[in-house]
């Protein structure tokens, strides 16, 4: 369907009108109308904001669930939960949750979501996605990352051979004569002390023994990993559902994008503005909830003919996964962070009545500089200045953030409050 509308004004021949332009928040919208003037198609250029609608992971900009929800304001893709999902070849209620009989906590979640909407050319598209969420898998990944980075936290080994000592690579931050930070590496031998509490976490079994991780339960990094594990257990079903819905919107051709690195807006100097412009398409339709349920059922069974009965003369396409998707650790942590934020918001309904938090006490300026009474502390800016001047290596900032429990691949991903804590810690360690 074209974004241009053909009209025949009285006394003239056919004349093409250009697409109408309208404002949608801070984005631009092009609309196509039918012969009666009703809006039928929409092509919108939406503005997404870093930290709210997308996150930077390893240098790439990825849309988060908040961003997909914003894009879906135009795409109008209806997300429906089918009645059943497939678990090990058997139909189970959707979502299907497995509970560990010993801990009584969630161990695995299977969830399924169907998205119903129209493609940019007007075809009806049904996207069927499934996600399997294994809580233990992500716990093991976290532990492996911890012992790789902190040799004193543990070591990989066999169940039948408890370690008495092991070698590892210790990384420490040092400064050059000019004051710039660099990472210093050296091999060390680790010997568990009397206060250590080594515990074996199995990863795989081989005959009478098992391969796994010997971790020191007294180590703060192992305790932090276990805290993350508990958070994932608490929100497992909601994390899986968030990721599944995001995968559906990402796969639907009305949105159809996840990596928006090339859509980042830069200023005249070539610097990142913290925003991105993304194209999304929408179609007006007359489908009601009953129609959506019928279409969802047809997608659930892969029945194209049933879908075509709902919308006559429509081109219908069903996009589905052969196997459930198992999301990566970054996706899981992003989903968990969103659920934690939602819960904190629910637990503090009266925050608005209490008024704003008091302003933090401003820092004293260096000798010879006058304090600006109107200035407010901007710790993200201070962190960036340290990195750009070489006073503190960017990786050292990330390492400090992770030591404080903040997951960040780049120092620019830190929030203002996180940046403040990192800055305070760097002050304590004498790096600032």
Q: Count the strands?
A: 21
The major pleated sheet works out as: 5 strands, antiparallel
- Overall number of structural domains: 3
Helix count, DSSP H or I runs of 4 or more residues: 10
Estimated share of beta-strand residues: 25-35%
The geometry reads as: flat
Estimate the helix proportion, in percent: 25-40%
Major sheet strand order: 3-4-5-20-19
Mean pLDDT: 76
Radius of gyration: 27 Å
Please state the structural category.
alpha+beta
As residue ranges, the low-confidence spans are 1-16, 347-377
Distance between the termini: 60 Å
Q: Can you put this structure into words, describing what you see?
A:
There is one protein chain. The strands form 7 sheets. A 5-stranded antiparallel sheet has the order 3-4-5-20-19, covered by helices on one side. The chain folds into 3 domains: 5-137 and 231-341, no CATH class; 151-218, no CATH class; 377-432, no CATH class. It has helices at residues 65-75, 135-149, 220-251, 289-300, 304-310, 329-347, 351-354, 379-389, 394-403, 416-428; strands at 5-7, 15-17, 20-24, 27-33, 39-49, 54-57, 60-63, 78-80, 84-87, 90-93, 96-99, 106-118, 124-134, 154-158, 166-175, 181-190, 198-206, 209-216, 264-266, 272-283, 316-320. The termini are far apart. It is α+β, with helices and mostly antiparallel strands and 432 residues long. α4 (289-300) runs antiparallel to α5 (304-310) and α8 crosses α10.
């Amino acid at each position: 369907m074209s974004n241009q509308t053909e009209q025949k004004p009285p006394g003239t021949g056919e004349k093409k009108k250009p697409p109408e332009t309208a404002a949608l928040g801070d984005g631009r919208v092009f609309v196509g109308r039918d012969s009666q003037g009703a809006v039928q198609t929409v092509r919108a250029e939406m503005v997404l904001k870093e930290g709210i609608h997308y996150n930077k992971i390893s240098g790439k900009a990825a849309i988060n669930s908040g961003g997909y929800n914003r894009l879906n304001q135009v795409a109008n893709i209806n997300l429906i939960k089918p009645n059943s999902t497939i678990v090990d070849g058997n139909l189970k209620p959707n979502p299907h949750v497995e509970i560990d009989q010993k801990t009584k906590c969630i161990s695995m979640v299977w969830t399924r979501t169907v998205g119903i909407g129209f493609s940019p050319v007007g075809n009806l598209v049904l996207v069927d996605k499934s996600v399997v969420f294994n809580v233990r898998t992500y716990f093991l990944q976290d532990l492996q990352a911890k012992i790789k980075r902190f040799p004193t936290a543990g070591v990989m080994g066999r169940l039948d051979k408890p370690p008495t000592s092991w070698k590892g690579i210790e990384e420490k931050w040092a400064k050059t004569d000019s004051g710039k930070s660099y990472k210093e590496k050296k091999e060390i031998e680790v010997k568990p002390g009397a206060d250590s509490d080594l515990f074996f976490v199995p990863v795989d079994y081989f005959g009478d023994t098992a391969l796994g991780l010997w971790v020191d339960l007294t180590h703060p990094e192992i305790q932090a990993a276990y805290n993350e594990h508990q958070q994932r257990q608490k929100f497992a079903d909601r994390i899986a559902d968030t990721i599944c819905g995001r995968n559906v919107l990402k796969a639907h051709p009305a949105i159809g994008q996840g990596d928006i690195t090339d859509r980042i807006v830069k200023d005249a100097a070539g610097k990142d503005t913290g925003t991105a412009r993304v194209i999304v398409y929408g179609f007006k339709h007359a489908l009601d909830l009953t129609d959506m349920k019928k279409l969802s059922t047809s997608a659930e069974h892969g029945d194209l003919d049933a879908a075509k009965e709902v919308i006559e003369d429509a081109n219908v396409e069903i996009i589905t996964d052969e196997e459930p998707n198992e999301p990566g650790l970054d996706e899981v942590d992003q989903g968990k962070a969103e659920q934690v934020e939602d819960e904190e918001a629910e637990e503090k309904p009266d925050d608005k009545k209490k008024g704003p938090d008091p302003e933090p006490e401003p820092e004293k300026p260096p000798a010879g500089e006058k304090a600006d009474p109107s200035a407010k502390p901007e710790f993200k800016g201070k962190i960036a200045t340290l990195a750009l001047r070489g006073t503190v290596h960017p990786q050292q900032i990330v390492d400090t953030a992770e030591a404080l429990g903040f997951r960040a691949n780049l120092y620019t991903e830190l929030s203002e409050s996180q940046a403040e804590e990192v800055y305070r810690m760097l002050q304590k360690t004498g790096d600032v």
